[in-house]
Specification:
Length: about 425
């Protein structure tokens, strides 16, 4: 199947939008003043807004697009503890106690989002399915085994090794060298989760102004003046929740997050019985490559949803779709003649220390930089940020006060990304 045949019947909208299209909210009539203005209607912004609205603060959420148009409805629907640096890496930077506390925050975020979805009764195909984290070479399997055997006391997670000889019990591919199953990791339908969250924010009394981008924020005495094409709003507190779509509105933040495109495809429905051979345990999957692939069955187990980065630079889903399909076929050769129905992309935000950050700058609250693993942490830290706006002591996190790094000459355009991806791709392809 050539590239043009693959893309012939392919839609460039996210698969998730088929049964959870972006909500077309009525045009908002902007109030002259609010207690809290939130910029960004993704997971972070809505969770912050839910806290402030339920806490009795008049709350207005702005978004330049439809609510949740960005990566909150474009991601792979995988949830983990989401802290990328290891204990040893964090301990060298911040000391052992701070390292422990940061990793515990990641574990809390995983437990918290499941409890939130259950308590709020959000129908979003949430499940604790576990993750198979696959080793792409023998050395990485050895490294995974060593890390599993040396988990820091108090940070142990429920996981077990899968040697290569037993790999097909987890995944119908021989490409990997075994891996680890993390049993507490979860899956979710991200767009339905966002829709349920949005409904609860609106029910709490917050207003959401979709397709109403904020063009400027200025300090005016003890409050802020936010300018939009539909008028101005004065707010006592401002929350910036733009993550991978952070731009010139907040140049200090723009210099501290690295927008990186993450690309996904959905296959056509698979023949009866094939999914049971390829994903016998229904787990979400990722691998140890630096330029990682991540994938899973769709909630109805009829399609494979496959994501990763396929180009040194940003590209078009028309180009990324066939490249992802080729990577999928390397994993599962039996899918060579299976077409793709959807190809799309979204922007995540990385940081220079691979940690998410939340805090306050020039009087404005912010949380962002989830490094491609933000379904759980963006929700959790958005919630904590909302508590901080309310002045609640439980809003404190182990990440408070961490220096939010940038680099000389970086202004938000990741000119270094292409050579970095090229280097890591070469390294990923080495045999050891």
């Amino acid at each position: 199947m050539n590239d043009s045949e693959l893309m012939q019947a392919c839609t460039l909208a996210p698969y998730w939008w088929d049964d959870a299209p972006r909500p077309r909210l009525p045009q908002a009539v902007l109030p002259p003043t609010v207690d809290v203005a939130v910029v960004g209607a993704g997971y972070t912004g809505l969770h912050a807004a839910l806290q402030t609205a339920r806490g009795g603060r008049s709350t207005l959420v702005f978004d330049a697009e439809d609510a949740g148009w960005g990566c909150s409805s474009r991601n792979g629907g995988q949830i983990s503890t989401s802290i990328k640096p290891s204990f040893d890496q964090l301990a060298r930077r911040h000391g052992k106690q701070r390292a422990f506390d940061i990793l515990r925050e990641g574990q809390r975020s995983l437990a918290w989002i499941g409890e939130f979805i259950r308590c709020e009764q959000i129908d979003c195909d949430f499940g604790q399915v576990g993750r198979f984290h696959a080793a792409h070479n023998a050395a990485q399997y050895t490294a995974l085994a060593a890390r599993l055997a040396a988990q820091p006391k108090g940070l142990e997670v429920d996981a077990f090794l899968v040697p290569r000889a037993q790999q097909r019990q987890e995944l119908g591919s021989d490409l990997y060298w075994g891996g680890v199953v993390y049993q507490q990791h979860c899956s979710v339908h991200p767009a339905r989760y966002h829709q349920g969250l949005l409904e609860r924010v609106l029910a709490a009394g917050a207003q959401v102004a979709a397709r109403c981008g904020v063009q400027g924020v200025t300090r005016d005495g003890s409050s802020f003046l936010l300018s939009t094409a539909q008028g101005q709003v004065r707010a006592r507190d401002v929350v910036i929740a733009t993550n991978g779509y952070t731009g010139s509105l907040t140049p200090w933040l723009q210099r501290r997050v690295i927008p990186i495109g993450s690309y996904m495809i959905a296959t056509e429905p698979l023949p009866e019985g094939l999914m049971d051979r390829l994903f016998p345990t229904n787990r979400i999957v990722s691998d140890t490559r630096k330029v990682v692939y991540y994938y899973r069955p769709s909630p109805d187990r009829r399609r494979i949803l496959f994501g990763g980065r396929v180009s040194h630079q940003e590209t078009d889903p028309r180009v990324s779709g066939p490249k992802l399909h080729a990577a999928l076929v390397r994993l599962f050769p039996e899918l060579r003649n299976t077409g793709i129905s959807h190809s799309w992309c979204g922007f995540v935000a990385y940081t220079f220390d691979e940690l998410m950050h939340l805090g306050k700058h020039e009087g404005m609250y912010y949380a962002m930089g989830y490094c491609g693993a933000g379904v759980g942490t963006s929700s959790y830290f958005g919630m904590r940020l909302g508590q901080q706006v309310l002045g609640l002591p439980q809003g404190h996190t182990a990440l408070d006060g961490l220096a939010f790094q940038t680099r000389p000459l970086y202004s938000g355009n990741p000119w270094f990304l292409a050579p970095s991806v090229a280097y890591y791709r070469v390294r990923d392809n080495l045999p050891v």
